Amino acid sequence: MTITTERVNSAGKNTGPLDLDELTATGLRDRWYPVLPSKLVPRGDMKKVTRLGKDWLLFRDSKGKLSVLADRCPHRNAPLSAGQHLGDRVKCQYHGVEVDDSGTVVKVPGMPGCALEGKQAALSLEVVEAAEVIFAWFPATPDSKAPEFVLPEWLGSPECSFFPNFVEWKAPWRFYLDNVLDPMHGAFLHADSHSMFQGDTTARFRIRETDRGFFFEKTDQVGKNFDWVEYVSENGLDYVNLEIPYGPEAGPGGPFGIVGIPVPISADTTAVFHWRTRKVAGWERDVWRFLYRSALEDKHWAVLEQDRNMLENFATDADQAEHLYQHDLGVARIRRMYRAAAQEQAKQIAEHG
């Protein structure tokens, strides 16, 4: 089994182990990442996606079991996604080699008894389906071990109801984190929205440390706008939590919560996963879900479109040579954290050879 911790240049040539620049551009490894909503890969289907700069095959067998395989036939690296679904395996269209959901070659029809048969020669990622989404563990080295997958508490609690949301943006993944670690943009970019028109356009911020990350929050305003965000990194999963206050006209439940995870597709495109949550139970849960679908969902899409339009119009080097000020403490903090983690991971991969 080959771990994909190598980079390929524009000419298609392997240029060695993943380095700092590549990890910065296409994301850290040794992480759980959401890959695609589960409903987009029905039973007996397969779908090609690009995540972290590489192509993957999402394969669901005839019984419903899901696998994520490197989209390369072990024989000649032809795309398995161009092949044929055979129920419990995929047949490469190029030479008919058959690969099962573990990445093991089960048949080489052109040369029966070939040494490739029975060999686990295609990378198969560890997979979990939770919160209506497919998650996969992307290893940094061959001996990387995935920790137990644990959902963010807002998604795993029976007291919370959520709606998953998936979009793709033509912007680097790091722009998403910069955006969400900047609560002050809510008072300006989203000033005409249904939920962020209140509150001051001036504020002071602080960073509050936790045992799993940090909060970046306003010190002089709470419960009026996008006033805080929490960055979390635990159990191999990185995500953000934030809350938007809602009045009684928005139905039962407390503030409107968002769990967000950006997933690099390539150096300049991002898959954005959100879960829109509210703490409700019983009959109030049903009322909230009806109200969301009928009256609120379109408004939330409009807010998300404001972010997308802004970030897609940034230059790709917009996060260089800036003039940051106090409101940007959260942005500076998350950049330092990811830079340090990428440096450590690049060193780890290089030492592995």
Automatic annotation (TrEMBL):
<dbReference type="GO" id="GO:0004497">
    <property type="term" value="F:monooxygenase activity"/>
</dbReference>
<keyword id="KW-0411">Iron-sulfur</keyword>
<keyword id="KW-0001">2Fe-2S</keyword>
<dbReference type="InterPro" id="IPR050584">
    <property type="entry name" value="Cholesterol_7-desaturase"/>
</dbReference>
<dbReference type="InterPro" id="IPR036922">
    <property type="entry name" value="Rieske_2Fe-2S_sf"/>
</dbReference>
<dbReference type="GO" id="GO:0016705">
    <property type="term" value="F:oxidoreductase activity, acting on paired donors, with incorporation or reduction of molecular oxygen"/>
</dbReference>
<feature type="domain" description="Rieske">
    <location>
        <begin position="32"/>
        <end position="136"/>
    </location>
</feature>
<keyword id="KW-0560">Oxidoreductase</keyword>
<dbReference type="GO" id="GO:0051537">
    <property type="term" value="F:2 iron, 2 sulfur cluster binding"/>
</dbReference>
<dbReference type="GO" id="GO:0046872">
    <property type="term" value="F:metal ion binding"/>
</dbReference>
<dbReference type="InterPro" id="IPR044043">
    <property type="entry name" value="VanA_C_cat"/>
</dbReference>
<dbReference type="InterPro" id="IPR017941">
    <property type="entry name" value="Rieske_2Fe-2S"/>
</dbReference>
<protein>
    <submittedName>
        <fullName>Rieske 2Fe-2S domain-containing protein</fullName>
    </submittedName>
</protein>
<dbReference type="Pfam" id="PF19112">
    <property type="entry name" value="VanA_C"/>
</dbReference>
<keyword id="KW-0408">Iron</keyword>
<dbReference type="Pfam" id="PF00355">
    <property type="entry name" value="Rieske"/>
</dbReference>
<keyword id="KW-0479">Metal-binding</keyword>
